[in-house]
Amino acid sequence: MSVLSPAPLLSPDSLEEALRSIGAERYHHLHPFHRALHDGRLSRGQVQAWALNRYYYQSRIPAKDASLLARLPTAELRREWRSRLVDHDGDAPGTGGVARWLVLTDGLGLDRDYVTSLEGLLPATRFSVDAYVTFVRERTVLEAVASSLTELFSPLIIGERVSGMLRHYDFVTQETLAYFTPRLTQAPKDSDFALAYVREHARTPEQQQGALDALRFKCSLLWTMLDALDYSYVSPGRIPPGAFRPS
Ligand SMILES: O=C(O)c1cc(C(=O)O)c2c(n1)C(=O)C(=O)c1cc(C(=O)O)[nH]c1-2
After folding, report:
1. How is residue 7 annotated by DSSP?
2. Each residue's pLDDT tens digit, 88-127
3. Residue in 50, 56, 154, 220 to alter for ligand 1 test, most ligand atoms within 8 A of Cβ
4. Which three-class secondary structure state does DSSP give residue 108?
5. Residue 118, by phi and psi: left (phi above 0), alpha (psi -120 to 50) or beta?
6. CB under 8 Å to 74, separation ≥6 — which residues?
7. What is the C-alpha to C-alpha distance for residues 233 and 245, in angstroms, rounded to an integer?
8. N or C: where does the chain have the smaller number of CB atoms within 10 Å of the terminal CB?
9. Given 1.20.910.10, 3.60.15.10, 2.60.40.740, 1.10.760.10, which CATH number is that of 12-234?
10. pTM score, two decimals?
11. What backbone phi and psi angles, to 5 degrees, belong to 43?
């Protein structure tokens, strides 16, 4: 939006269209590292680096959802949002999305204690994920909910990823990628709710721009994480000190 002309008030349908076009232009399905991952152009060590770094994202998602849950004003909203905590943390040890992500890192041959120690993370992964948790904690509830709307676009990329990785990598199995199967139903349920919330609660031009900016912010941080993987693991000799080194 130009700084010279004030933003117009959009209808809920136009707002949704603007949100969807941000995803079409900026979501991480377009990133060269994802294209390489899904097309089978990465080595096992590069796939390990992706899974190890992405573990930090997965592990902080419940923390960001818990901070948002605490600020939601009604039982109805909190009931809806708390299902995300169960999806990620499970309701018993060894269940939930974070535990399933560790099945993926196990399947790729990474040591679990090393993954969960976070010692091998890229600096940019840490900063990006922490920026997401801080954003959700500090911005309005509307902006926080809007920042989760990248999930509108994740089923598409998950479908491409699972079929591409199974086809191209002999070190990847259906069991290793089991993390993604429940996401295909969880993500649409979560993003339908978040989208309905944003359509209803973004009632002024400023609130609508805040929601659009929150989604742009989220696309940027997902993009940054892949930039860092691309820079560090695709060109030789660029792994930062202390970060994971494929053997
Ligand atoms: O595989 C992916 O590309 C992808 C993307 C995203 C996303 O768009 O943020 C999420 C996930 N996966 C995911 O598994 C997940 O649990 C998740 C939670 C959230 C969120 O912002 O609350 N995004 C995502």
Report:
1. P
2. 999 999 999 999 999 999 999 999 999 999 999 999 999 9
3. 154
4. coil
5. left
6. none
7. 9
8. C
9. 1.20.910.10
10. 0.95
11. -80, 170
